Each structure stands twice: as structure tokens, then as C-alpha cells.
User: Which sequence fits this backbone?
């Protein structure tokens, strides 16, 4: 199996500017507290404590999700896919931690990886840092949201795991879902796994949860591509996986 480059240390290394900014906020608020009038000091201490708490909860959540939840065993796929696919496509937007484990899990299946990374579409600095550390698979083909380089009706399953939210423009996500539907055979499944912009993720990631998308957006995108909402699975308390199916025609 291809070694998995993940875990809380990788999350920190990909997002170190945010961690530096958070630590600086903690220190600055604490320093300010000692220089403010006595009546205002509790406000500064509260701000420092809140920033420190957010750093700790975000780090703890990342550790649990990426190191302890079983996310990368992919056992949770059994709750969403009715059978092992004979052919599947992994679509990534810069960081592909899916292709290696699935190649070991489904050794008989025909596999394809497509990389959509484009700084104009996915401009996050964390993706650039992650991509330098974990290059795309050697067999990955470059694609665009509106043009996935793969034949129509050729895959039982297309997987978007922590990928589609990196396309920040709604129109790019719509194009991508439409293309994923084109690749699927009748009865095939588009599997999407993401953090959601919801109460649980906001509680642990704070403003960082705004980077995620709400559940309704994923349902809207599936409907736009004429895919039906099938199974849905929540795990680790913070990740939601959707199975969207293509009509049998």
C-alpha cells in the first residue's frame, strides 16, 4: 500500500500560517491585557483564551479525524456502495490521499486518477504546500472541471473525497458534478466525502468552518447533475459522505 501522508502533523504543516496567526493572536491579546485599564483586562484575557481554545479544538479534531477515526481504512465505503466497483475514478484538486489505499482495497478494479489542480481555481496556499509534499500519482491525468479526460458511461464509481470544496466558484462545482455524472454508468455512484459548514464543525474549527460548504449545497449540486441522493453516512462526528446515484436508463 502507498504510504499515507496525513495526520495532525501534516495538517499543521499544510496550514502553518493559520497556526502562526492563531498563536500570535493568543500572545498579542495576553500582552495587551497587561497594558489595558483594569476594567478592560478581562476582555483581552477572554480573547486570548478564546483564540487558544480554538487552536486546541481544531488541532484535536484534526488528530481525531485523520489519525484515529478510521477515515483512511475506507471501511465506511461499505455503507455507501452496494458492491465493489469494476472501474472507478478518483478526482482530486491538488492532494490525492485516496488512490493508494483504494488500489490496495480494490486490486481487481480498473482505476483512474484525475487531478484538477489549478492555482486559478484552487488558490489555497495549503494546497500548494500539500502538493509539494505529496505529489499526485504518476498515472494521474490533468483535467478541468468542465472536461474530465475519461470516456462517458465508463465508471461504476467516481470519488470526490475532500476535493470538490476546493473549487470556490459555484459554477466550477456545477461543471464538475455534471462531468462526474457523464462518466458514470447507469446506476453508478458519485461518492462525495466532506466536512460540512454546520454546528459541529463550526464548534471545533471556528471561522475556519466557512471554508466548508453546507449540506444543502452538495444536495443542490447533485440535483443540478440529475443525480439522486441515496445513502448518507456521518462518521467521526465531523465528516459526511454522500452517495449520489445515476438513473438506470
Assistant:
Amino acid at each position: 500500500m502507498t504510504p499515507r501522508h496525513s495526520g495532525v502533523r501534516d495538517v499543521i504543516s499544510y496550514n502553518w500560517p493559520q497556526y502562526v496567526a492563531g498563536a500570535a493572536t493568543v500572545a498579542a491579546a495576553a500582552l495587551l491585557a497587561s497594558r489595558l485599564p483594569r476594567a478592560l483586562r478581562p476582555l483581552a484575557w477572554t480573547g486570548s483564551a478564546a483564540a487558544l481554545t480554538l487552536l486546541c479544538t481544531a488541532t484535536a479534531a484534526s488528530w481525531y479525524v485523520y489519525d484515529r477515526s478510521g477515515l483512511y481504512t475506507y471501511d465506511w465505503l461499505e455503507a455507501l456502495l452496494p458492491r465493489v466497483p469494476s472501474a472507478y475514478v478518483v478526482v482530486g484538486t491538488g492532494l490525492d490521499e485516496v488512490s493508494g489505499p483504494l488500489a490496495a482495497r480494490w486490486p481487481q478494479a480498473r482505476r483512474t486518477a484525475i487531478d484538477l489542480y489549478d492555482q486559478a481555481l484552487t488558490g489555497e496556499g495549503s494546497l500548494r504546500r500539500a502538493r509539494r509534499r505529496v505529489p499526485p500519482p504518476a498515472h494521474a491525468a490533468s483535467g478541468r472541471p468542465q472536461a474530465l479526460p475519461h470516456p462517458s458511461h465508463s465508471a461504476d464509481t467516481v470519488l470526490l473525497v475532500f476535493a470538490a470544496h476546493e473549487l470556490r466558484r459555484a459554477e466550477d462545482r456545477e461543471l464538475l458534478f455534471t462531468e462526474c455524472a457523464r462518466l458514470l454508468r447507469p446506476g453508478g455512484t458519485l461518492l462525495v466525502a466532506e466536512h460540512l459548514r454546520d454546528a459541529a464543525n463550526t464548534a471545533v474549527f471556528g471561522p475556519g468552518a466557512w471554508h466548508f460548504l453546507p449540506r444543502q449545497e452538495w444536495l443542490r449540486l447533485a440535483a443540478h447533475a440529475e443525480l439522486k441522493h441515496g445513502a448518507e453516512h456521518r462518521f467521526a462526528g465531523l465528516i459526511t459522505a454522500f452517495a449520489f446515484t445515476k438513473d438506470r436508463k
Q: What stands out?
A: The helical segments are 8-14, 16-33, 41-68, 99-105, 125-133, 170-183, 199-205, 215-224. Residues 8-68 form one domain.
